[in-house]
């Protein structure tokens, strides 16, 4: 529900940028729902670990998709740039799930940055978008016309890609060390 609120509010910012506050509220609702479901199951002793893992992470993927589409349809971020951020997020998710399978350890934060920090960053960006003038014409970067806030989103995408490649190559070295090549 929180993702629908956040993504829908981003689309509504085409009418008034005050909807950014509703989008931030959607991130809070999303965080509460995402954080509480497993906790409540554990407290009530009705956990279903495999089913919970399956549902939780598929919902996370859909959540990211809804929010990225909403942001890309807003007046703040170009659709292509929003999808680039989504790709970076999905790469980190895929990396996480592969490592969960191989190591049987679920690690969701990288470099001290996890889902909560991502939501807080998006809420801060919403505040920045609200208070800064968004009537600027597109900025030309390498001959490509970008919206002013695309630059912020590109920094987020770059950060996600850097994290992905850093942890990918670190894990590759670790797997190679624990399972060296055998020569015939």
Describe this entry's structure for a reader.
The protein has 184 residues and is mainly alpha-helical. Helix content is 71%, strand content 3%. Strands 1-2 form a two-stranded antiparallel ribbon. The longest helix has 29 residues, at 150-178. The protein is flat. The model has no long low-confidence stretch (mean pLDDT 88).
User: So what's the overall shape?
Assistant: flat
> What is the succession of H and E elements?
HHHHHEEH
Radius of gyration: 19 Å
**Uncertain ranges:** none
Helix content class: over 70%
Q: What is the terminal separation in angstroms?
A: 56 Å
The number of distinct structural domains comes to 1
The spatial strand order of the largest sheet comes to 1-2
Number of strands: 2
Query: In CATH, what is the class?
Result: Mainly Alpha
CATH-wise, what's the superfamily? Answer: CDP-alcohol phosphotransferase transmembrane (TM) domain
Sheet-strand content, in percent, reads under 5%
**CATH architectural type:** Up-down Bundle
Summarize it:
The chain is mainly alpha-helical. Helix content is 71%, strand content 3%.
Provide key terms for this protein:
184 residues; mainly alpha; Four Helix Bundle (Hemerythrin (Met), subunit A); two-stranded antiparallel sheet; 6 helices; 2 strands; 3% strand
